[in-house]
UniProtKB/TrEMBL annotation:
SUPFAM superfamilies: Pectin lyase-like. Residues 138-219 form the P22 tailspike C-terminal domain. It comes from the Bacteria. This is Endorhamnosidase. Residues 93-132 form the Tail spike TSP1/Gp66 N-terminal domain.
Length: 219
């Protein structure tokens, strides 16, 4: 509804917005609910869209890094053996929500209420945004494809998480007459790897207008 004062948000609008915020917080923090006391999670699911995304801490670990136990707001110290630690610059405190790795000498003291800019600057020999190290390629995939097979064990798990596009980025070994139900979703399935097996791999309930690009089967 609306009034002379402009649009009025309904309770449902606010609840939807909150779910989006929780999803974003879970992706950044790797914590259930996006809160410090939440359980560690490797994947976050948007309760509005159904989109599943790997959390940034999980991506960090895959690249050989791990989140520091502190951030630029709380402050802390990177020890001499902490070259593989990445420090979060929190969005809620004016940051960009990215993780930063220190490329200078260690130990490195990060005062509370600081930023990468005030504690050495951003350069190849100081703070380097994790996105500039390895996450950019991962992020490009996330923007182009809603999900990719390398993040899942089975094709059915991939189909359940799919939103609009799928990347088959690793070879998949299937069993004869293995059936994958896409639930009526209209999807673009981009095959950059092979389906390997003897017999049939059956796709069902692919929505009208779906595209399976360059499928390759190998026995």
């Amino acid at each position: 509804m609306s009034s002379g004062c402009g649009d009025v948000l309904s309770l449902n609008d606010l609840q939807i917005a909150k779910k989006h915020q929780i999803f974003e917080a879970e992706v950044i923090t790797g914590k259930q609910g996006g809160v410090a006391g939440g359980a560690d999670i490797d994947y976050a699911t948007n309760q509005v869209t159904g989109q599943t995304q790997k959390t940034l801490p999980a991506v960090l670990r895959d690249a050989g890094f791990s989140p520091a136990s502190f951030n630029f707001t709380t402050g802390g110290t990177l020890g001499v053996n902490d070259a593989d630690k990445a420090v979060l610059w929190p969005v809620e405190d004016g940051g960009d929500g990215n993780y930063y790795a220190w490329r200078g000498s260690l130990p490195k003291v990060i005062p509370a209420a600081s930023t990468p800019l005030t504690t050495g600057g951003i350069s190849d020999s100081a703070w380097v945004a994790f996105g500039d190290i390895t996450f950019r390629a991962e992020a490009d995939k996330k923007f182009k494809y809603s999900v990719k097979l390398s993040d899942f064990t089975t094709l059915q798990q991939l189909a359940d998480a799919a939103v609009d596009s799928i990347l088959i980025d690793r070879d998949y070994n299937f069993s004869n007459n293995e059936t994958v139900n896409f639930g009526g979703k209209t999807l673009t399935i981009d095959c950059k790897a092979k389906f390997i097996g003897d017999g049939n791999l059956v796709f069902t309930q692919l929505g009208k207008g779906s595209i399976v690009a360059a499928p390759f089967m190998e026995s």
